[in-house]
Amino acid sequence: MVFNSVIKKEGERMPEIEVKGKKLALDEDGFLQDWEEWDEEVAQALAEDDRFTGAKVELSDAHWEVVRFLREFYIEKGVAPPIRQLIKEMKKRFGPDKGNQEYLYELFPQGPAKDACRIAGLPKPTGCV
What we know:
Strand order of the largest sheet: 1-2-3
Shape: globular
CATH class of the domain at 38-119: Mainly Alpha
Number of helices: 5
Number of strands: 3
Structural class: alpha+beta
CATH architecture of the domain at 38-119: Orthogonal Bundle
Distance between the termini: 27 Å
CATH topology of the domain at 38-119: Arc Repressor Mutant, subunit A
C-alpha cells in the first residue's frame, strides 16, 4: 500500500491511499471519499496510515467487531454514529463490557467514533472535530 497526496487545485493536495494498485481518495482528515470502495484490505491500510492520527492501529478481533458493527449501523441508518450513540448501540448489541467509553478508547485511543469510522471507511461522524 502507498500513501500519497495528489494535487486537487493549484496549491492544494488531496490525500489518497493506494490499495491493491487502486488509488482511493481521502478527505483532509483521512476518511474515504467513497465508503463503497471499502473492504477489509482498505481497512487494514487505513489503520496503518498514521498521517491523520499520529498513530497506527493494529487491528485485533475486538477492533474488527467494532468496525463491522459500524458498517452495519451505517448501512441500516445511513449515518455514522457520534460517540454517545456508538456507546449506547454497542451496549445494546454486545453488553456493558463492550458498550462503554473506556473499552472503546482502549481500542481506538485517538477517538473511538472518529478513528473507528475512518478505518471502517465511513464518513466522519457528526460532531467529530
